[in-house]
Design goal:
Elements (H helix, E strand, L loop, with lengths): L10 E7 L3 H12 L5 E4 L14 E3 L6 H16 L15 E5 L2 H16 L5 E3 L1 H7 L10 E5 L3 E3 L1 H14 L3 E3 L4 E7 L2 E7 L2 E10 L5 H8 L6 E10 L11 E4 L4 E6 L2 E6 L17 H11 L1 H4 L3 E11 L6 E4 L6 E5 L5 H16 L30
Parallel strand pairs: 1-2, 1-11, 2-8, 4-13, 11-18
Antiparallel strand pairs: 3-7, 4-6, 5-6, 9-10, 10-11, 12-15, 12-16, 13-14, 14-15, 17-18
Helix pairs in contact: 1-5, 1-9, 2-9
Pfam families: DAO (PF01266)
Keywords: Oxidoreductase
GO molecular function: oxidoreductase activity
Amino acid sequence: MSSTSRTVPPTADVVIIGGGVMGTSIAFHLAEAGVHNIVVVERGELGSGSSGKPIGGVRAQFSDPLNIALGSRSLRAWQDFPQRPGADIRLDSVGYLFLLTSDQQAADFETGVHLQNSLGVPSRMIGPREAQQLCPYLSTDGLVAAAYSPTDGHARPGLAVQGYARAAARAGVVFAPHTAVTGLDTTGDRVTAVHTDHGRISCSTVICAAGAWSARIGAMAGVHLPVRPVRRQLAFTAPLAPPAPRIPFTIDFASTAYFHNSDDGLLFGLADPEQADGFDTTWTPDWLRLFRAAARRRAPALADMETHDGWAGLYEVTPDHNALIGRSGTLPNFLYATGFSGHGFLQAPAVGEIMRDLHLDRAPFVDVTPLSADRFTTGAETRPEAHVV
């Protein structure tokens, strides 16, 4: 990165806190729109937080219209990424396949498919036999139905971060990695400066895109951002010979066990329901027993596959598993985009656009008022999202 700094500039128009896919997307979209003097502050390397995960799913299959809109808009941007901003993110549009094992799940997903179709998403309900044709590893025993959308898939978040950051740096954005935010100055109803361990930055606007660390940043400004860190783990199989068939991003909805292609093998994941909150990202292979138990029921061949590596990262979870996107009501120049609860990578392009428009006082392509953090303190309606993994 050409425009990186170990001592921060003394002034900036916009300081973005967080150098993951969300922060770099916001920086790119702001710079593309002609906003100058942007500084991105990141406590580690760019993309070293939640965006560091090896593979990220991209989808528009959600139950909430706002999430469908964010996912669908972002899918188009991921498809266009080689041209704008110009990078290969290894997008593989293999589709998402949700496996449903109860009549209630099938009914709920059918309602979701109707809504998705009305918003231009080509998802559909399929039977167990077609699901098995798409993913030969499946056992159809106990499988009631599946939901499939062929334009979903997966890509590499780290490559997306680099692509956004390089384009933003070319446009003059300054990146300050290995720089921790230590405090914020406020005067009246304005944030006036960001303090870091490499210096103070006087600024006109602060945008919090700090992922799992956002509650701490919000507290520095007196803004309640109810985000908690939860460890999520995944594993990679040893190389498979013969190679694995090309399969969708496949999810056993009841157990949250998921698997898909990864280089010369498969990637396994599962959300451990007993996982305590915290910032620990130590990989502990014992969680694999949960995955293997689910696989024995749904994809038996996977249950005994050898794994040779793994990874642990953080979800940034809100009380209703939906994002916090908006502008503080008490500090109008403090904006935030966080709490994506596992959906941040797939929504990052659309959210970058939205944060650009909020900063420029333009109407975004979709009304994100319902995603304001204030919904948890004012009694406003929360956003239920059923398609959570």
